[in-house]
Design goal:
Number of strands: 12
Number of domains: 2
Strand content: 15-25%
Distance between the termini: 44 Å
Largest sheet: 7 strands, mixed
CATH class of the largest domain: Alpha Beta
Radius of gyration: 20 Å
Structural class: alpha/beta
Helix content: 25-40%
Oligomer: single chain
Order of helices and strands: HEHEHEHEEEHEHEHHEEEHHE
CATH topology of the largest domain: D-Maltodextrin-Binding Protein, domain 2
CATH architecture of the largest domain: 3-Layer(aba) Sandwich
Amino acid sequence: MKSWKALVYCFLVQASFITQGAVWDITYPKNINHETIHNQYAIALLELALQKTGVRYQLHQTDNVLTQQRAIQLLTDNRQINVMWSMTDVDRETLLTPIRIPIYKGLIGWRVLLMHKNNQDSLANLDPINMRKLTLVQGLNWPDNKILRSNGFNVVNATEHLEAFRLMRDRQVSLFARSVIEVLDELGKPELTEGLQLEPDYVLQYPTAMYFFVNTGDRILQKLLEQGLQEAVKDGSMDALFEQTYAALLAKIDLTDRIKIPLKNPLLPNTTPVGDRQLWYAQ
């Protein structure tokens, strides 16, 4: 009964904001990749969801770059920001409330491999077994780190994003698994990826989702984003934005021709909507 009353209250407050013409201030964290295609897509999708609700809003980015861990802490404490997007896992869904519509249609879990050009010969006969014997770098606090370890990969920790690329450039590690939505942006930045190239044959694939997250007490924004995203899925506007952003990019990676290596994700919450096919990318 209490939850029903709380839900009614949320919608009454939402209606009040709309009818009274109030402006909803929404702040998200500036991250180190704020100018990339995939980050701009997330912002565009956030705006699309808010537009679908009819609420008046102003969207703000923090002045300073926030690490993912710092953003999670601030949102948990309900300070500075009131929404962020991040890969989900059980721990994150304990701290924050997820909007369970995968922002990138699950492509955050489709991972191609970066390798150094000078290692082409030694990696020419790469296969799913021997790639697990090589060193593969990942960020220390990234969910992917635990996922890859649990699937038998020899993972080397990097303290942050830039260090991972430095280790690759210096050939201190052999491989770096990057999402198909990230990697072409990164290869276009020589300060990050000079000397690096895509491994040509494989794509790792594990079920996961990047969600919008809000503070656990922010029921109104939760309902607004759920309502807006569900409408965008229903009317096809989310798919249109996705195709506009990623169709050409995925073609460049030759995703359909790559050999898929399916992996398990022990961090995937049971509430992940894996059965709803319209929410996920499929070839």
